[in-house]
Amino acid sequence: MTDRIAQAAGSGRCVWLHGGDGGPQLAWLEPDDVSLTYDARRREVTRHVAARREVVGDDIFDVLAAEIAAGAPDDRWYGYFGYAARSDLPARPDDILPDAVWMRPSHVESLELPETSGQQVVGATHEPAPQWYRDAFESVQEHLHAGNSYEVNLTYRATTRSDLTPLEAFTRLWRVNPAPYAAYLHHDMPGARAFVAGSSPERYARIDARGTARTLEAKPIKGTTPRGATAAEDTAAAELLRTDQRFRSENLMIVDLLRHDLSQVCEVGTVEVPTLMAVESYASVHQLVSTVRGALRADVSSIDALRALFPAGSMTGAPKLRTMQIIDEVEATPRGAYAGALGWISGDGRADLGVIIRTLLTDGSGTYTLGTGGGVTVQSTAEDEYTESRWKAERLLRALEA
């Protein structure tokens, strides 16, 4: 099945998505099909058709909305918004990949990958946090105690070399860590190369459309524990996640943030939380997941709704703007595509995107980057948070091993 993805990748531009309506799907472009890339440093959106490149705007959301409006209702765009995709928010541009890539393919087919249950990996033992992490953690704590934020998602970038091709890296990642929003994106265009191999479990946003009614849903994850080595330890780990006050308070703060974000674009009185703090289990982790849902207002386009939620509250903290300012101050490197959103947007108003976590990123040079981290509150310790960040990254690094 991955041979089929490799054939599609031969076109230079393709994407395989696990989640979404219609099941897993593979999409690829002909030379005359359109793709868009965004460079946040230059504030340029570039339109790619065959060998032609043309700067067509300075806001990826606006340009994408115009392209969708000019197309047919059954057109579907596939791609990602990187963390710096919104120019009105404090986020450093990426220095490796485009800050957004979106593609309109001529070809879409259903493609299931071989079933895999993954390989259970228990969490790492506690290890001392390095000084650079301690310094960032202490800066975050100062802001938390000063009341500038309630929770800060503190992350960092890890870099490694591998002889694996991006598709080989994705294939290995799928085998060891399958996930609901697993994805492979391949955009091999000069000056705008981007290869994304992801195994994300988190829904950023889904928009369902029935007639003129549209429902917006987000499923933030906040609270993660490693699986146990035995059945008893695994049950205990899930119960700890469900009952621990620190995990519950982290999740509740992000749910409140999402309720606020949805209320900006949804009908008054329709925002609800049908599921609060459910434990969901994956090959390597248990996670605490909530669902926030609302009815989109008629005057709000689907692109406007996705912009209003961006970036995911689970990847910033609360309040969003002030916390993003803190993140920009304390994190040493850009986040790039990490902490953004990847999926599809349809001309009929529907959309389904996952949060870009548990993801390998490369420009095809053999250097891979990944982001990892977690939510920090006044109850957090540097050792616990750093240990959590390491076992989140472990499975990604394992996929790159010979």
From TrEMBL:
It comes from the Bacteria. Residues 131-392 form the Chorismate-utilising enzyme C-terminal domain. InterPro entries: ADC_synthase, Anth_synth_I-like, Chorismate_C. One of its GO terms (biological process) is 4-aminobenzoate biosynthetic process. One of its GO terms (cellular component) is cytoplasm. One of its GO terms (molecular function) is 4-amino-4-deoxychorismate synthase activity. This is Anthranilate synthase component I family protein. It comes from Microbacterium paludicola.
